[in-house]
Structures are given as C-alpha cells and as structure tokens.
Design a protein that fits this description.
Number of domains: 1
Distance between the termini: 13 Å
InterPro entries: HlyB_4HB_MCP (IPR024478), MCPsignal_dom (IPR004089)
Protein name: Chemotaxis protein
Pfam family, one: 4HB_MCP_1
Shape: rod-shaped
Structural class: mainly alpha
Largest sheet: none
Helix content: over 70%
GO biological process, one term: signal transduction
Keywords: Membrane, Transducer, Transmembrane, Transmembrane helix
C-alpha cells in the first residue's frame, strides 16, 4: 500500500508538470513561428508594394514627359535632364523588388515586366530626336507604333505584378490565421485535459488516503479500549513499576513532539503545493495574454491589406488620368499641324491660325488641370504608403510583444518546477521524522517488556496488554507510513 500511494503521488506531480511544461513549450514554439511568419509577410509585402508603386509613379512621369515636351518648349531641357534620373530610380526599384523573397510566378512576371520596360525606354530617344528636328508628323507616327504600345504593355504587366503580389500576401495571411487557430485549439484542449486529470487525481488520492486514516483510527480506538480495561485490572502491578511507566511516558511525549514536527512539515508541503497551483494559474494567464497579442497582430496585418487595396484603387485612377493626358497631347499635335497649314495658306490674313491657336491654348489648359489632378492623386498614394508603413511597424511591435509573453510563460513554468522541488524536499524531511518516531516506538516497546518481566503476579493481564499493544503498534505504523508518503 505504501508503494502504491507514493507512486500515485509522484506520478501525479510528474504528469501535471510534464503536461504544463509541454503546453508552455508548444505555445512558445508556435508563437515564435507566428511572429517569424508575420515579420516575413511584413517585409515582403511592404518592400514589394512600395517598390512597385514607386516604379509605377516614375513610369507615369516618363509617359507624361512626351506631352510636356510638346506643349512646354521652355521646359524641354529640364525634361531631358530628368529622363536619365527616372531611369536610374526605376532600376533601383526593380533591384530592390528582385532582392526580396519571390515565388516562381513572381519571378516569371518580373522577367516579362523588365523586358517590356527595356523595350519602352530603348524607343524613347528617337522620338525626342524627331521632335527636336521639327519632324512632328514623323514623331507622332513613330510614337503610335513604338513608345505608346510599349508603354501600355509595361503598365499592364506592372498592374499584373501588383495584383499577383497582393494575392500572394493574402494567401500567406490566410496561412498565418490557420496556424493561429490551430494553436488556440491546442492550448484550449491541453489546458482542459490538465484540469480534468488534476481533478481525477485529487479525488482518487483523497479517497484512498481517507480510507486508510479511517481504518487506522478505528483500530486505535478499539485497541485503546482494551488497554484501558486491562490497565484498570492491573493497577496494583503498574504502581510497582512506576519507573518503567515514567520512562514510557517520556518516550510517548517525545513521540508526540515528533508527530507535531511531522504535522508542521505536512503543512509546509501543502503550502508549497498551493504555490505551485498559483504559479500554474499565472502561466495560464500569461498564455492568454500571448493569444491576445497574436490577435492584435492579426488586426494589424489586416490593416496592411486594406491600405494596399486602397493604394491599388488610386493607382488605377492615375492610369486613367494619364490616358486622358495622352489623348489631349495627340489632339494638340493635330491642331498644331493644322495651324501651320492655315498660316501658310492665308498669309497675312491668318484668321484660321488664330482659331487654331485658341484651341491649342484650351487643350493646354486641360492638360495642366489633368496634371494637377494627377499630382494630387500621387500625393494621396504616398500618404497611403506612409500609413501602411506605420501600421505594419506597429504589427512588428505586437509580434515582438508576443515573443516576450511566451518567454514570460517559460519563466513561470521554471518557478513551478522550483515549487514542486521544495515539496519533494519537505517530503524527505517528513520521512526522516517518521524514522525517528519508529525508534521512539521501539523504546516504548522495550519499556513495556520491562513491565511484563516485573509483573509475574499479573501474567494474564500483561498478556492482554501485550496483545493490545501489538495491535496499537500496527495501527501506529500504518499512520506513520501514511505520513511518510504524504
């Protein structure tokens, strides 16, 4: 029986400690993985989106440079100076985008985009040469078959790459959400299992120990009644053995002191067990905070997705306005040619030229307003990008906070292990005290034997006392063994 109760106690502590430690390790490991995935998503999506957006912005400036070059002759030098700078910026954006982690589909799309862009910029210098030479009609025809379709192809491939980047980001976000849900279910089921096991062990051990104590108390009560009857019958003999009785009394008092010490140690063990339970509850709360931190990280990543969607809409508006500017530039070219023809035909009476010139000014005004509208949209795009950077930075902080909470969970479980170790040490001290009690009981038996040898006239009564004492010793040994395993 002693080995069974001891084994149950050690098995209970080992099971609960192993289960709690396992929950802590799994929670920490999964939280770390979630934080790493979120950080990778933040880097790839943010850097990729910003690079593609900047590429789109500078590509628009390149395409808008043609109509500006026609209607603003005074700014032609600035436009030609800005041209290589825009090439350099776009090459830097492409290099940055190429260095992030790309899927095979993204790499294939990037190759197509670079090919179309190189073909577009390779065709631009000849158009400038034709315009500078005054060959406007040839420049318009050259642009219609080269730069315009090449630029449109580049824009189409760029939009496809942006949509692909958004799609991949959404898929990775769904993977993070799925991992988070699995972690939540695992922690909930494991903690519930720990509570059920703790309840079952408490009921089984409490019932076992209570039955042993109850039986021992009954035996002691029965035996004590027999001893009282026998002592009353042999009162005269016991008086003759006063010295032996005094020695026995002293020994029993020492036994009482040792019993009190055992009780104190048992209370200390109970206090340490209560502390272990409190620390385990603290570990559960810390895991809850970790789950909340990851939930906040989910909201931040969702905000990133919303900002990117808004950025896509504004980019589409930029493309529409850019097309309008291109159409106005074409009309301006046609009217300019007509004005030249009318001026040559009318000579001094160039009324037709005046009408054409007036139309050219109107179209120029429309082009200017469209350019202003585009600049406003570009500014809004930059604001959206800045907001995205701030939101994603906050998401990274939340992920770091989740890792710190997981580390705190590990510290709590270390404290639990220390508390359980203290319980084990107290149980060792209780066992040593029980051994001292056994020695004291042996001394009491020796004193009673001396009484038996001196009480020949009460042989029958002493035999009854001996039998009753043996029963009492057996019951006392059961109680001592029970204290040793508690």
């Amino acid at each position: 029986m002693n080995f069974g109760v001891r084994a149950k106690l050690f098995t209970s502590f080992a099971t609960l400690l192993t289960l709690i430690a396992g929950v802590g390790f799994v929670g920490w490991q999964n939280t770390k993985e979630l934080a790493t995935d979120a950080e990778d998503l933040y880097k790839n999506q943010l850097i990729g989106a910003v690079s593609l957006s900047n590429f789109d912005s500078d590509l628009w400036r390149l395409r808008y440079g043609f109509p500006q070059y026609l209607v603003q002759p005074e700014n032609r030098q600035d436009i030609r100076t800005e041209e290589p700078q825009l090439y350099q910026h776009i090459n830097q954006y492409l290099e940055t985008y190429r260095n992030i982690e790309l899927t095979p589909e993204e790499e294939k799309g990037l190759e197509k985009l670079e090919t179309a862009y190189k073909r577009y910029i390779a065709a631009r210098p000849k158009w400038f040469e034709l315009v500078d030479a005054g060959k406007l009609n040839e420049a318009a025809q050259y642009r219609a078959v080269t730069t315009t379709p090449f630029g449109a192809e580049t824009v189409e491939l760029l939009e496809a790459q942006i949509n692909l980047k958004r799609k991949i980001g959404e898929e990775k976000y769904e993977e993070i959400i799925e991992k988070f849900n699995r972690l939540t279910i695992l922690l909930t089921v494991t903690l519930g299992l720990a509570l059920v096991i703790a309840g079952i062990l408490s009921v089984l051990l409490g019932r076992n120990i209570a039955q042993v104590i109850l039986q021992s108390v009954k035996n002691i009560t029965k035996t004590s009644g027999k001893i009282a009857d026998t002592v009353e019958q042999q009162q005269s003999t016991i008086l003759k053995q006063a010295n032996s009785v005094n020695k026995t009394t002293t020994t029993i008092e020492e036994l009482g002191v040792f019993a009190l010490q055992s009780a104190d140690k048992a209370e200390n063990a109970a206090g340490e067990a209560q502390q272990a339970l409190t620390l385990a509850q603290g570990g559960t709360q810390t895991v809850g905070l970790t789950v909340e931190g990851i939930s906040e990280l989910k909201d931040q990543v969702l905000a990133i997705a919303n900002q990117i969607v808004q950025l896509s809409k504004q980019t589409a508006q930029i493309s529409t306005v850019s097309d309008l500017v291109a159409d106005l530039a074409n009309q301006t070219n046609i009217l300019a040619l007509n004005a030249g023809v009318e001026a040559a035909r009318a000579g001094d009476q160039g009324r037709g030229f005046a009408v054409v010139a007036n139309e050219i000014r109107k179209l120029a005004d429309q082009s200017k307003k469209s350019a202003e509208q585009i600049n406003i949209l570009v500014y809004e795009v930059q604001e959206a990008i800045n907001s995205t950077v701030m939101v994603t930075d906050e998401g990274t902080k939340k992920a770091v906070h989740g890792i710190q909470l997981a580390e705190q969970t590990g510290d709590v479980f270390v404290s639990i292990a220390n508390a359980i170790n203290n319980v084990f040490l107290n149980n060792q001290q209780i066992a040593m005290t029980a051994k001292q009690q056994a020695v004291t009981v042996q001394q009491a038996v020796a004193a009673m034997n001396a009484i038996n040898l001196g009480a020949k006239e009460a042989a029958v009564g002493i035999a009854q006392v001996k039998d009753a004492t043996q029963d009492l010793n057996y019951a006392a040994e059961n109680l001592q063994n029970l204290k040793a395993v508690v």
